[in-house]
Specification:
By secondary structure, the protein is of the alpha/beta class. The chain contains twelve helices and eight strands.
Length: about 260
């Protein structure tokens, strides 16, 4: 079988028919109640937050959400969060810590919204604050890259104790177009950039950036596997002390970049 190229993975990850965060939430969790607003400016719908349950275990959900139709994409800002989204996420991270609920994040964005209004309201600070909050959160965090995970918009909610990634998802510090524009001043070389960026699940697993690749042969199996992994990892970590959970996350990112041995 022909190997799928990195650029082909990019195209699959961006497919408008690809399952969104709300699809995964609906099929993995028994209940989901959405919560709204950052209590400061507005409720930005590019990130969905709420409470969910699997069996007897409660969770806080923070999920980047794209639309499928033009109307949905406009409502969701094409899945590009404004600062309000990250401040909403921080609000519910703190709530999760207060009530000892593990946090599950779903990552699927081409990046944080780069508009003038977003910058005026502190986009960079909001992203940094989200990462800072996650770094010291005293509950387990599981981050799942389900589609396009690009730029600070993705990194802002991906400081998990465990990072899972679908096999056709991508995860990087910026888009291939952005990489090509910066490196070669030519965004048309995005395909070439994708091959160099090590943004596929296989690349990132070998680099030790992610913990597990989820096979995508059958969507029902994807839902089932993610549910099982969430429960398995959660059951491991809820037995830990607050300090152990934070240290596990800290050591994970301190050691990131050391190559794994490929079996």
């Amino acid at each position: 079988m022909k190997e799928i190229t990195a650029w082909e993975r990019v195209e699959i990850a961006r497919d408008p028919k690809r399952k969104t965060s709300l699809d995964y939430i609906e099929n993995i969790f028994d209940d989901f109640v959405e919560l709204h607003g950052d209590r400061n400016f507005s409720d930005d719908k590019a990130i969905v937050c709420g409470l969910a349950r699997i069996e007897n275990q409660n969770f806080t959900i923070i999920a980047e959400q794209k639309g499928r139709t033009t109307k949905e994409n406009i409502e969701r800002n094409f899945g590009m969060p404004n600062p309000e989204s990250y401040r909403k996420a921080i609000r519910f991270m703190k709530q999760a810590e207060k009530f000892k609920r593990p946090v599950i994040t779903f990552i699927d964005t081409k990046g944080a919204y780069p508009g003038i209004g977003a910058e005026e309201r502190g986009q960079g600070e909001a992203i940094a604050s989200s990462m800072l909050e996650m770094s010291s959160l005293k509950v387990p965090i599981i981050s799942i890259v389900i589609g396009e995970g690009s730029s600070g918009g993705a990194l802002a909610i991906s400081l998990g104790n465990k990072i899972l990634m679908l096999e056709n998802a991508i995860y990087s510090i910026l888009s291939p177009e952005g990489y090509a524009s910066i490196l070669w001043k030519d965004s048309s070389r995005a395909k070439e950039a994708a091959e160099k960026m090590k943004l596929t699940a296989k690349d990132l697993y070998e680099l030790g950036v992610i913990d597990e690749i989820i096979n995508e042969d059958n969507i029902d199996e994807v839902y089932k596997n993610l549910k099982n992994r969430i429960l398995d990892y959660t059951s491991e970590m809820i037995r830990m002390t607050d300090e152990e959970i934070v240290n596990l996350r800290y050591n994970k990112f301190r050691n990131m970049g050391k190559y794994k041995k490929v079996k």
